[in-house]
Request: fold
Amino acid sequence: MSTVFLILYSRAGCCLCEGLEERLRNLPLQNLNPPIELRVIDIDAFETSKEVRARYDLQVPVMLLRRSDQDKMVEIPRASPRLNSEGLFKWLQKVLSKTVRSD
Reply:
């Protein structure tokens, strides 16, 4: 079974980025179906590719889903910053059910 990663492109000092990251870290992501693992990538980090930086620089926070057995990443819609924890969890489950298919 492959692992599903939720990749969050973020930036230090961005209140929207930091707020979303904190809310995601406090969710039981392993209880989603399928379970997901959070990876946070600083868009300004030296190791972040120029292509990624150019694409998402002015859009952070941006979330993408990627299965460990596939190279393809799928950008998912922006979550409302007004969602409480329960709402964010339900929203993620809905996005997963539409986006990630188990083969």
Notes: The first strand starts at residue 4 and ends at 10. The first helix runs from residue 15 to 25.
